[in-house]
Amino acid sequence: MGGSSINLLFANTLNAIGIPQSKLVPFEHPFHGITPESSSTPLGKITLAVMFGQADNFRTEQINFNVADFDRAYNAILGTTALAKFMAASHYAYQLIKIPGSKGTITIPWNTKVACLLTSPGS
Prior knowledge:
- This protein is mainly β.
- Helix content is 10%, strand content 41%.
- The protein contains 2 helices and 10 strands; from the N terminus they run E-H-E-E-E-E-E-H-E-E-E-E.
- A hairpin with a 2-residue loop joins strand 8 and strand 9.
- It is globular and about 40 Å long.
- It starts with 7 loop residues before the first strand and ends with a strand.
């Protein structure tokens, strides 16, 4: 498992949103292609609600994440499985992603620092 299909959440992000690691489901299958080492084993898995948009036009989906025990410049990485769930369309020339929302298209520029909101289960 790994590559472009993996949804990866970093342990520091999990801690920052107030979810204890005790909430992780054990998962010991390594993933490949993210670290300079040949593979990494996640701390576990967790399903979180991920929301794009604003209060008046949004889209929320439940996404399964592998939780990584290392840091990158990002809070999380959404793979092709999550983007497909959101029906996201990437527009490389314009550097943005478009997602169908509750009241129209949600446009997310790639340089936005806060592009999605992760919420704890049951929120």
